[in-house]
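Bench log, entry 3. Co-assembly request; chain sequences pasted below exactly as received.
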Amino acid sequence: MADFLSFRDGDAAQEPAVTVESFTGQSNATAVRIEPGEDVRELLPHLDRLSLVEVNFPAFGDGRGYSAARVLRESGYAGELRAVGDVLVDQIVAMRRCGFDSFHPDKPLDDAAVDRALSRYADIYQRSIDGRPPVWAKRHPETENG
Amino acid sequence: MYRYDQYDQSIVEARVEEFRDQTRRRLAGHLTEDQFKPLRLMNGLYLQLHAYMLRVAIPYGTLSAPQMRKLGEIARKYDKGYGHFTTRQNLQYNWIKLEDAPDILAELATVEMHAIQTSGNCIRNISSDQYAGVSADEVADPRPWAELLRQWSSFHPEFTYLPRKFKIAVIASDEDRSAMRLHDIGLQLVERDGPDGKEIGAKVYAGGGMGRTPMVALLINDFVAEDEIVSYLEACLRVYNRYGRRDNKYKARIKILVHEIGVEEYRRQVEEEFAHMRTLGLNPPTAELDRIRAFFAAPAYKIGLPEEIDRADPAFGLWVDQNVAAHKAPGYAIVNISLKPLGGIPGDASAEQMELVADLAERFSLGEIRVTHAQNLVLPHVRKADLPALWRALDEAGLSEANLDLITDIIACPGLDYCSLANARAIPLAQKIASRFADPARQRDLGELKLKISGCINACGHHHAGHIGILGVDRRGVENYQLLLGGSGAQDASLGQITGPGFSEDGVVDAIEKVTDIYVAQRQPGERFLDTYRRLGMAPFKEAIYG
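Structure output for the full assembly:
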């Protein structure tokens, strides 16, 4: 069982994450935790000094964190993006596709179940953050988008 | 019709294996019901009053004969021999065993079908016009776009845990046969002149829905180019996912967001997001739309077929007048098969009926079948010369009810007979109303009259959109029925108004009769019930009911 999973090269960020409010109010923090109701775009002016963004999922059914993750990645954030809280094995695939590259779940995850989940779908329908080609790109390798 | 390639097939098969694994974990006790619930819901499996219910997607309401045959086979093998067609072009089995569910999904996968996202807070089955491809009034067959969106919405990584369920309809004509403006997002394909000739795009409506706060969707964009629809919808969904309410499930649909911030503000946020989204390469190339479009190319219609229909049998003639619609190709007709026989359960079909319809589709309709949001079936490509033979075969199977769009063509949810959410029964009430108005001549005299019954405020029976709507409520432990008048799910979409205090089951049947009596007494030539109601307003109807 794993209580921390990382898909990044190198060590995970260790600095404790501060709230968005204290992050935007001080200049030296490099790790921040965003809650579902907070506007991730407040972080965009500060991406160059961030090394860790934790996105909290107080309940797995609250999907705002998926949008937060994609907004960060679409805006060029390349640091560690960590899903924390009520993170279950059945959400890992979608989270990876939205750009999360580390996980700190409330309850440890079964490594074998995570591996099974991540390898189950060989094909996907949408272009997203993970760079995997969607099936339309495989169908039309000759096109500009493909 | 669309056919899966290796990619589509591999995704659906992976889903079957995933659910088999999840079901095994549940049956072995490794998952609690609380943990299992969101997983089974993503596969359309509900725990109802008596058993599990499995909801199978019929994307944009199109079925091949082998698919329909498989649905019948599953009904016989795993259910009690029935299936129930729903108001969202899905099929529900009401008597499913949990341990059988993975095998059923595997059987569906063999005919390129699935139950993916037929429930849960995600993008649901994409619905469309049952006359797509065969109606003369469309600018294009809307189903290629619907299939494109089926693929785009399947396992979308960002939009699987939305505030609430999300329903999309795609149509391509001014006449709305799909209740498009009562969807969370409705797309109407339109044509306009561009620099290189005609171009197709979508008018986009947002914020429609039924439930306890019904709303008609509002126009947010009058032309999104056909090759940017995916990125535009990504923008619509992202704004909703980020800002839709999550504090109260009854205020979580997009209609509440659009209402609370205003359509102008919602549109502004979508445009801002869209400006960003369109730079990300999210849209499939035109070649992909062309690939899908090829599957929906018009079949090779035979030229020179006769137009005359032999009406020697009067019962056949009445059925032609009521249930057969104009087809765009000469010599062909669109046949509606009513699933509302007198005394039957609206939308139900037996395994034998499903298999028969599959056979008839092969004999008479180029192998194709459609499912309508009014819970009926359609054979879209029937030669006029074949109509008598088709009618006789339907008649022998109890499928020749000539009541399309008449007062006995009732939409009803499963109600308290099956559903764990319901407050009141809907099916027995539908049967009582149908029996009160059983006289076919009286039905035809009343003309188009869309009657819709929901057994609770969630409005699965579309009561808000009924010319006459009925809502079942629980009044201190007794089933009680509220009556609504003046709703419409068509291009003149409107929401019904409650007449006043509710009724008992028999009382509401009496009230409907009084309402139709007023219509007959006060209608002007050519007026439908709805037109008379709109002209006169509620007062005379209310007076007749309560006065």
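DSSP finds 17 helices and 20 strands in chain B. Chain B has a mean pLDDT of 96.
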